[in-house]
Amino acid sequence: MTRDEAIGLLRTHIKADNLVKHMFAVEAAMKAYARKFGEDEEKWGLAGLLHDVDYEKHPDAAEHSLRGAEWLEAAGLPAEVVHAVRAHGVHPELPREDRMTRTLCAVDELTGFIVAVALVRPSKKLADVEVKSVTKKMKDKAFAAAINRGELVKTADDLGVPFNDHVAIVLDAMKGIAGELGL
To answer: How does pLDDT run across 27-84, given as a tens digit for each residue?
Structure first.
């Protein structure tokens, strides 16, 4: 599946512009990590781009990611992409042992946290966000309170990447598409 075809599939199921932007951010972060790990950027990008394809129709944690994975499997996406999408949800029975899946889990919530940090800056621009801005906001439990800081750190550890380096990789990837993100 090409990126354009994936965007077509995404737009069939997702109408909310902010969710589409989130998926673009995760795609960029996944591609950055694919480069870092010497993996297939297009395949990893597809996992990031389509990871929440079912969210508008199936936002409940019990179904989210499972339905989307079924759709991706039916569309003929590679098994690794389908597994990463399926396992990124809250399904402890699904293993997160492969690098693509661990990476998807590590970048998903962090992209949202970084967006939240950018939006409280006077400029509302990613260009004005630094790693230290993100780590400082991590200490403020009232800021973006729904995001589990322990999980952000744990998923970076699962990748074997120091947290500050992880933030830098994801932030730089997002800055590279700041125009698409409106930030």
So the answer is: 999 999 999 999 999 999 999 999 999 999 999 888 899 999 999 999 999 999 999 9
Q: Which helix (H) or strand (E) holds 19?
A: helix 17-37
* pLDDT per position as a tens digit, 88-115: 877 777 778 899 999 999 999 999 999 9
Which sign does the torsion angle of CA 130, 147, 38, 69 carry?
negative
- pTM summary value: 0.96
Q: Which domain holds residue 97?
A: 3-181
pLDDT digits (tens, 9 = 90+) for 145-159: 999 999 999 999 999
Q: CA–CA distance from 3 to each of 15, 22, 89, 151 (Å)?
A: 18, 16, 22, 29
Residue 115 phi, psi dihedral angles, 5° rounding: -60, -45
Distance CA 107, CA 30 (A): 7
Separation of alpha carbons 156 and 49, rounded Å: 20
CATH number at residue 105: 1.10.3210
Overall number of domains in the chain: 1
**CB burial readout 139-155, b (16+ within 10 A) else e:** eeeeebeeeebeebeeb
DSSP letters spanning 30-47: HHHHHHHHT--HHHHHHH
